[in-house]
Amino acid sequence: MAKYIIALDQGTTGSRAIIFNHNGTIVSTASKEFRQIYPKPGWVEHNPREIWSSQIEVAKVALDKAGLEAGDIAALGITNQRETTIVWDKKTGKPVYNAIVWQCRRTAPICDQLKKKGLAEIIQKKTGLVVDAYFSGTKIKWILDNVSGVRGKAKKGEVLFGTVDSWLIWNLTKSKAH
Q1: Of 93, 59, 75, which is closest to residue 166 (Cα–Cα)?
Q2: pTM score of the predicted model
Protein backbone atom coordinates (compact mmCIF):
# COMPACT_ATOMS: atom_id res chain seq x y z
CA MET A 1 0.00 0.00 0.00
CA ALA A 2 1.31 3.45 -0.98
CA LYS A 3 2.09 5.49 2.09
CA TYR A 4 4.68 8.06 1.11
CA ILE A 5 4.44 11.62 -0.18
CA ILE A 6 6.93 13.14 -2.59
CA ALA A 7 7.40 16.89 -2.80
CA LEU A 8 8.93 18.28 -5.98
CA ASP A 9 10.60 21.59 -5.19
CA GLN A 10 11.48 23.20 -8.51
CA GLY A 11 13.39 26.33 -7.55
CA THR A 12 15.14 29.14 -9.37
CA THR A 13 18.59 27.57 -9.21
CA GLY A 14 17.83 23.89 -8.88
CA SER A 15 15.42 21.02 -8.49
CA ARG A 16 14.83 19.06 -5.31
CA ALA A 17 12.73 16.06 -4.31
CA ILE A 18 11.78 15.25 -0.73
CA ILE A 19 10.04 12.05 0.33
CA PHE A 20 7.98 11.97 3.55
CA ASN A 21 6.49 9.02 5.37
CA HIS A 22 2.91 8.97 6.72
CA ASN A 23 4.07 10.74 9.90
CA GLY A 24 5.57 13.63 7.93
CA THR A 25 9.15 12.56 8.63
CA ILE A 26 11.63 13.10 5.81
CA VAL A 27 12.74 9.74 4.43
CA SER A 28 15.09 10.98 1.70
CA THR A 29 16.04 14.00 -0.37
CA ALA A 30 17.92 14.71 -3.56
CA SER A 31 18.81 17.94 -5.34
CA LYS A 32 20.50 19.18 -8.47
CA GLU A 33 21.39 22.63 -9.72
CA PHE A 34 20.74 23.64 -13.31
CA ARG A 35 22.10 26.26 -15.68
CA GLN A 36 21.11 29.90 -15.53
CA ILE A 37 21.00 31.72 -18.89
CA TYR A 38 21.63 35.48 -19.12
CA PRO A 39 21.27 36.48 -22.82
CA LYS A 40 21.33 40.24 -22.04
CA PRO A 41 21.68 42.38 -18.92
CA GLY A 42 18.50 42.08 -16.86
CA TRP A 43 17.30 39.01 -18.76
CA VAL A 44 17.12 35.59 -17.09
CA GLU A 45 16.14 32.32 -18.77
CA HIS A 46 16.12 28.58 -18.10
CA ASN A 47 15.99 25.66 -20.50
CA PRO A 48 12.56 24.06 -19.86
CA ARG A 49 13.84 20.62 -20.83
CA GLU A 50 16.64 20.97 -18.28
CA ILE A 51 14.07 21.95 -15.65
CA TRP A 52 12.11 18.77 -16.43
CA SER A 53 15.10 16.44 -16.66
CA SER A 54 16.65 17.70 -13.42
CA GLN A 55 13.35 17.40 -11.57
CA ILE A 56 12.63 13.86 -12.72
CA GLU A 57 16.25 12.86 -12.04
CA VAL A 58 16.14 14.01 -8.42
CA ALA A 59 12.77 12.29 -7.91
CA LYS A 60 14.29 9.00 -9.08
CA VAL A 61 17.38 9.50 -6.90
CA ALA A 62 15.22 10.24 -3.83
CA LEU A 63 13.15 7.10 -4.49
CA ASP A 64 16.32 5.00 -4.89
CA LYS A 65 17.87 6.42 -1.70
CA ALA A 66 14.69 5.52 0.20
CA GLY A 67 14.50 2.06 -1.35
CA LEU A 68 11.11 2.91 -2.83
CA GLU A 69 9.38 2.61 -6.18
CA ALA A 70 6.93 5.02 -7.81
CA GLY A 71 4.04 2.78 -6.70
CA ASP A 72 4.94 3.46 -3.07
CA ILE A 73 3.98 7.12 -3.50
CA ALA A 74 0.42 8.01 -2.45
CA ALA A 75 0.60 11.73 -3.21
CA LEU A 76 2.74 14.31 -4.92
CA GLY A 77 3.08 18.01 -4.19
CA ILE A 78 4.77 20.66 -6.30
CA THR A 79 6.29 23.94 -5.27
CA ASN A 80 7.91 26.05 -7.93
CA GLN A 81 9.70 29.22 -8.88
CA ARG A 82 6.83 31.64 -8.96
CA GLU A 83 6.05 33.40 -12.25
CA THR A 84 8.62 31.75 -14.52
CA THR A 85 6.81 31.36 -17.85
CA ILE A 86 6.98 28.52 -20.38
CA VAL A 87 5.21 28.20 -23.75
CA TRP A 88 5.39 24.85 -25.55
CA ASP A 89 4.03 23.09 -28.62
CA LYS A 90 0.89 21.15 -27.71
CA LYS A 91 1.63 18.22 -30.04
CA THR A 92 5.39 17.83 -29.79
CA GLY A 93 5.94 19.06 -26.23
CA LYS A 94 8.86 21.14 -27.48
CA PRO A 95 9.27 24.51 -25.77
CA VAL A 96 8.96 27.36 -28.29
CA TYR A 97 11.48 29.42 -26.32
CA ASN A 98 13.43 29.21 -23.09
CA ALA A 99 11.53 29.72 -19.85
CA ILE A 100 11.47 33.42 -18.99
CA VAL A 101 12.36 33.52 -15.30
CA TRP A 102 10.44 35.54 -12.71
CA GLN A 103 13.51 37.75 -12.15
CA CYS A 104 13.74 38.75 -15.83
CA ARG A 105 13.11 42.44 -16.52
CA ARG A 106 12.87 42.31 -20.34
CA THR A 107 9.16 43.16 -20.28
CA ALA A 108 9.50 46.28 -18.12
CA PRO A 109 9.01 48.51 -21.23
CA ILE A 110 5.72 46.70 -21.99
CA CYS A 111 4.62 47.35 -18.40
CA ASP A 112 5.58 51.02 -18.73
CA GLN A 113 3.46 51.30 -21.90
CA LEU A 114 0.46 49.77 -20.16
CA LYS A 115 0.84 52.24 -17.29
CA LYS A 116 1.22 55.21 -19.67
CA LYS A 117 -2.01 54.14 -21.41
CA GLY A 118 -3.75 54.30 -18.03
CA LEU A 119 -4.42 50.56 -17.91
CA ALA A 120 -2.73 49.75 -14.59
CA GLU A 121 -5.86 50.26 -12.51
CA ILE A 122 -8.15 48.16 -14.72
CA ILE A 123 -5.55 45.38 -14.94
CA GLN A 124 -5.22 45.33 -11.17
CA LYS A 125 -9.00 45.35 -10.76
CA LYS A 126 -9.44 42.39 -13.14
CA THR A 127 -6.45 40.32 -12.06
CA GLY A 128 -5.65 41.45 -8.53
CA LEU A 129 -2.07 42.01 -9.70
CA VAL A 130 -0.05 45.16 -10.19
CA VAL A 131 1.48 45.76 -13.61
CA ASP A 132 5.03 44.44 -13.26
CA ALA A 133 7.49 42.41 -15.35
CA TYR A 134 7.51 39.83 -12.55
CA PHE A 135 4.12 38.47 -13.66
CA SER A 136 3.45 36.14 -16.60
CA GLY A 137 1.16 38.27 -18.77
CA THR A 138 3.81 40.50 -20.29
CA LYS A 139 6.19 37.56 -20.66
CA ILE A 140 3.58 35.80 -22.81
CA LYS A 141 3.14 38.97 -24.88
CA TRP A 142 6.90 39.19 -25.37
CA ILE A 143 7.04 35.57 -26.62
CA LEU A 144 4.07 36.13 -28.96
CA ASP A 145 5.68 39.31 -30.34
CA ASN A 146 9.28 38.10 -30.58
CA VAL A 147 9.41 34.37 -31.25
CA SER A 148 8.75 33.60 -34.91
CA GLY A 149 5.58 31.65 -35.64
CA VAL A 150 4.32 31.46 -32.07
CA ARG A 151 1.47 33.97 -32.44
CA GLY A 152 0.09 31.99 -35.40
CA LYS A 153 0.35 28.72 -33.47
CA ALA A 154 -1.39 30.35 -30.49
CA LYS A 155 -4.27 31.52 -32.70
CA LYS A 156 -4.70 27.92 -33.88
CA GLY A 157 -4.58 26.56 -30.32
CA GLU A 158 -1.32 24.72 -31.00
CA VAL A 159 0.67 25.98 -28.00
CA LEU A 160 0.23 25.73 -24.26
CA PHE A 161 1.35 28.20 -21.63
CA GLY A 162 2.04 27.75 -17.97
CA THR A 163 4.29 28.46 -15.07
CA VAL A 164 6.74 25.74 -14.08
CA ASP A 165 4.17 23.73 -12.11
CA SER A 166 2.01 23.42 -15.25
CA TRP A 167 5.04 22.32 -17.29
CA LEU A 168 5.90 19.65 -14.72
CA ILE A 169 2.31 18.40 -14.49
CA TRP A 170 2.03 18.24 -18.29
CA ASN A 171 5.21 16.15 -18.45
CA LEU A 172 4.34 13.98 -15.43
CA THR A 173 0.96 13.11 -16.97
CA LYS A 174 2.45 12.48 -20.43
CA SER A 175 0.58 15.51 -21.87
CA LYS A 176 -2.81 14.59 -20.39
CA ALA A 177 -3.11 17.45 -17.86
CA HIS A 178 -2.16 21.10 -18.14
Answers
A1: 93
A2: 0.93
pLDDT tens per residue, range 83-107: 999 999 999 999 999 999 999 999 9
Q: Helix 136-146 crosses helix 108-116 at what angle (to 10 degrees)?
A: 110
User: How far from each other are the two terminal CA atoms of the chain, in whole angstroms?
Assistant: 28
Q: What confidence tens digit (pLDDT) does each residue in 60-87 have?
A: 999 999 999 999 999 999 999 989 999 9
Which domain range does residue 74 map to? 4-172
Residue 125 belongs to a domain = yes
Side chain identity at residue 31, one-letter code: S
Question: Does residue 98 lie within any of the structural domains?
Answer: yes
Where residue 10 sits, what CATH number does that domain have? 3.30.420.40
Rounded Cα–Cα distance for residues 106 and 162 (Å): 18
